[in-house]
Amino acid sequence: MVAFDPQLLWNGVVVGSLIALAALGLTLLFGLLNFINIAYGEYLAWGAYIALGAKWADVPFILAIVLGAIGAGLIAVITDRIVFKQFSDRDPVVLLVVSIGVAFMLRNLIRVVYGGSTHFYNVGGEAPVVFGIRVLPAQVIIVTLSIVILAIVFLILNETRIGIAMRAASDDTDLARIRGIDTKRLVIYVSLIGGVIAGIAGVMLGIDSNINPTMGFLFLIPIFAAVILGGIGDPVGAVVGGYALGIGQNLSIIFIPSEYTPAFALLILIIGLLTRPSGLFGEATR
């Protein structure tokens, strides 16, 4: 057992910021498309690699992040128009299987374009100690960028016509269509927004660790755990679930060896399904 260290709490907030942002994008996609898109992990990876390519071309890092986000958003829209749209009237399980195939294709395309090596953004800078906590510049970027993007997305969802239409269609697609909402066009908007969020989350993940072709796929378990913990299709729940999972995963080091912490997300996923299948804000099972 390890004594409590405030560094663990800060590291948990950083990881939670990553998971919360990625989970928000996935739950928005599920809310309208009604299937778990396994290729979402590859949207993250492509966002990270596009930003890396821009950085190699000496593009300022802030602009590289924007290019990575836009690139991932366009990939999400293109895959939806070319592939998922053709199966939109099929069972969600069929779409799930199709998304696995799309994920393999996108992952191998990364290897073709960028190779299979591991890369780093190398975000340098001094790491000051604040209240006994070592704060890396990369961590400040991750937490700040996550909060800004989360605020923008929730502002869109609550204060814009597109956001209100997205929420209405997520609650009841048929009723939204009857009320005159163009759900087909809305799918494009949601795919773009979800892909952009994934791209930014991918860059943040690359800043926190490294960039490799399987980075998005391996990050899917904590993302799914956060989405299910918060309630599938619930944006607020996904964010809360993401932060809870990130903080809980890091604090679990106090009780269990650090090599077992990756299994924490899977454990939370199982417990969440057994006790609160409707999410944190849903009704608990007895």
UniProtKB/TrEMBL annotation:
A molecular function GO annotation: L-isoleucine transmembrane transporter activity
Membrane-topology descriptor: Multi-pass membrane protein
Record-linked CDD domains: TM_PBP1_LivH_like (cd06582)
Name the record gives this protein: ABC-type transport system permease protein (Probable substrate branched-chain amino acids)
Example of a GO biological process term: L-alanine transport
Family of the protein in this entry: Belongs to the binding-protein-dependent transport system permease family. LivHM subfamily.
Keyword Cell membrane: yes
Subcellular compartments: Cell membrane
Name of one Pfam family that matches: BPD_transp_2
